[in-house]
Structures are given as C-alpha cells and as structure tokens.
Design a protein that fits this description.
It is built from 11 helices and 12 strands. The chain is α/β, with parallel strands linked by helices and 334 residues long. The chain has an 8-stranded mixed sheet with strand order 6-7-8-3-9-10-12-11, with helices on both faces. The protein has a 4-stranded antiparallel sheet with strand order 2-1-4-5.
C-alpha cells in the first residue's frame, strides 16, 4: 500500500513517486538448467519532492537507492508503480515526449571521470546536452557562464577531463547537468568518490546553486553526515524499502526506526568527549539477499528489537510525529 508522506503545503509536488517496484531477472551462477531468479531491487517505494526541496535518500550499499534514482529518470524502466514529474505521468510518455521532459530532469553520477568522455574537451562535454536536444546556436557563451557558475574559469573549456582533479571534474559534471536549466537533479553519490577535504566544497556548491536557481534535488548517499548538511527531508532505505522518512532535523535528532538509529550511531561527532562515551549500535550480519528477503520486516534479521510479529507481519509506514513516518512494530521512543 502506498502511504502519502507529502507535507501538507497546499502546493503540488514537483516529483511524486508511488509504489515504485523494480525487478531484475538473473540466472543462477551454476548448475544444469539454471533457472532465472527475481531480484526485487526496489519494493513499493513512495515519496514526494517539493519545488526547491532536497530529499536525501540514504542507506547501506545494496539498499536500492541508485535504482530508485534511475527509475525516476526512466534510465531504467520500472516494473510497477508511478512516477509523476510536474503532474505528468512519465510512463505514459512516448520516447519523443520523454526526451523533451528530460530537459528538466538531470543526473550527476558518482564517478566524475567515468561520466565524461575523455576524448572531448570540457567545453564540448558541457555543450553536448544542448546539441543532443537540438538547441541551435553558438553555445560558447553558455558554456563559459556554466563553468563560472560552478567555480571554474572560461579557459578550462579548452582542456580535457584528465587535466583536472576529482573535485573539479565533479564540478564539470554539475555544469553539464545544468546546461538545460533543469528543475530536478538526481545527485547519485556525488561526493563519495572525492577526498573528504573536497566533499564540503562540492556540497556547498550544491547548496549555493539551489539558492540561486531554485532547483530540487534527490541526494543519494550512504554517508548520513553529508546528507545532513543539505537535505530538507530524509528517506532511509533498507533492502528496497523505505524504513523511515521525514524532516531531516526530526529524523536525525529523534529517529524512530531502529535501523535509522543504528546508522546514526556510526556517524562521527565533532565533540571528542561525547564521541568517546556515546553508545554505538553494531549491526550483526550482512544485508540479506534481495533474491530471498526475510519475511515480515526485512530488517528483523539484524534488529535487536525483533519479535515473532516482525517475522509474520510486514510493518507499514505509520506517522510518528508531524511529517515523520517509519515502518516498525517496535519504534524507538523519546
């Protein structure tokens, strides 16, 4: 069942995802007459993103975060569910119509080097979306303005990707994503491949661009400390499902799902005295296989609160406080 977690602002969201499911069919790795198995990477995910808002999508590796982002853009075709962008059902669009809508939906990938053609100059890479979309004219002025917008200089347009640092290459990727003046950008682990010293500058860039241009972000990450600095709301994913979603301040200060609490306990604190004395929650075991997920609550095999009910009945997203939802039979209390 799709639960409406949209804050009651009175305005329609820019992005609305309802009951999103994505399945992959894979063959067994060995054995005669290998049978195909179904991997449900995303299982009934629903969320909304308002205009000018940043939604942080967080969780461990394999939780389905990146798959959600690619299904939103229809880089992957969803198995089921609905994705509405600015009131338009993307599943109903023809290829040509989707191509037009994609001008307003862009993505910044995790690896800034792999996302740029090493044989193209930076200027040509930034201008490429304009060319692909059939926008005529000399794009040099636009390229220069985009480079300056992301903190680079005009003469960088003549250079090649290998001549830049990782942080600079990610800024180039951002400039390329901005070429078509998008309303929504999917940021897929945009700083995880960067040195810690560089991450803050790139995150600050995203924040500054949002204030200037009014874009919406879906910020995908496994590092909750990074997301905290930019997200208005946070959705915590585990094994293809959303475990908790709500305003960032509430989720960080008063997590109601045990999984969220465990993830937050691993985030380093800047106060050495508190850092030395606080209790860390160590999750036992690995994330179960999405080919054969646990019955009931998917987190129960690693949860210290699990009971027989957790194995028999899947918990629904239930409101815990104003705008904060979690799916747990035994939520945390504060």
């Amino acid at each position: 069942m799709s639960v409406d977690t949209t804050p009651s602002t009175g305005t329609a969201p820019l992005l609305s995802v309802k009951g999103l499911v994505k399945e992959f069919h894979v063959k067994a790795s060995r054995g005669v007459g290998r049978k195909k198995r179904v991997v449900q990477a995303v299982s009934g995910v629903s969320f909304h993103v308002a205009r000018g808002e940043t939604l942080g999508l967080v969780g461990e590796s394999g939780s389905g975060k990146t798959t959600v982002g690619r299904c939103v853009l229809r880089l992957l075709e969803p198995t089921a569910g609905e994705v509405f962008f600015d009131g338009v059902d993307l599943a109903e669009l023809s290829f040509e119509d989707l191509r037009i809508v994609r001008r307003r939906m862009q993505i910044v990938f995790q690896d800034p080097y792999a996302s740029l053609d090493p044989k193209m100059t930076v200027g040509a890479s930034i201008a490429e979306p304009l060319v692909v979309q059939g926008i005529e004219g000399d794009h040099q002025e636009k390229v220069v303005s985009l480079l300056e917008l992301v903190g680079l200089s005009a003469d960088h347009a003549r250079r090649f990707p290998h001549e830049f640092s990782g942080g600079q290459r990610q800024r180039i990727g951002v400039a390329r994503a901005l070429a078509l003046d998008p309303a929504l950008i999917i940021l897929d682990e945009p700083v995880s491949a960067l040195d810690v010293s560089i991450q803050a500058g790139v995150v600050n860039l995203f924040d500054d661009l949002q204030r200037r241009l009014g874009m919406s972000y879906v910020f995908i990450a496994h590092d909750l400390s990074v997301v905290r600095h930019i997200a208005d709301r946070v959705a915590v994913m585990y094994l293809g499902k959303i475990m908790e979603i709500g305003p960032a301040e509430q989720v960080y200060e008063r997590p109601t799902h045990p999984y969220t609490k465990a993830l937050l306990s691993a985030v380093p604190l800047p106060n050495p005295r508190i850092e030395r004395t606080r209790h860390r929650i160590m999750l036992e075991g690995d994330v179960p296989s999405p080919v054969n997920p646990p019955s009931g609550c998917r987190f129960r095999t690693r949860c210290w609160k699990a009971t027989e009910m957790c194995a028999m009945q899947e918990p629904e997203l239930v409101v815990r406080s104003d705008g904060q939802f979690s799916a747990c039979h035994h939520p945390e209390t504060h």
